[in-house]
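INTERNAL AUDIT FORM
Audit reference: QA-55
Scope: verify that the stored structure record matches its stored sequence.
Auditor: D.O.
Record contents follow.
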Amino acid sequence: MELVYKVDGIDCANCAAKLERAIAKLSCVNSATLTFMTGRLVVDAADESAEKEILAVIAKREPDATVKRI
């Protein structure tokens, strides 16, 4: 299942890459791609229940970021 988010408030490409890797490591996630320039996060997850874990990782790694599902 593909989940797509708009993530605002990430300061640098390195931060985006670290966040992308952290999300991809979740057991419920098959892959994750975060494009720094657009703030678009695309996650291939097992199901929608992965959203809670994804949002928790974002909040922990980038507490100032805002996330909206699109």
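Auditor finding: record pair retrieved intact. The chain has one domain: 2-69.
Action required: none
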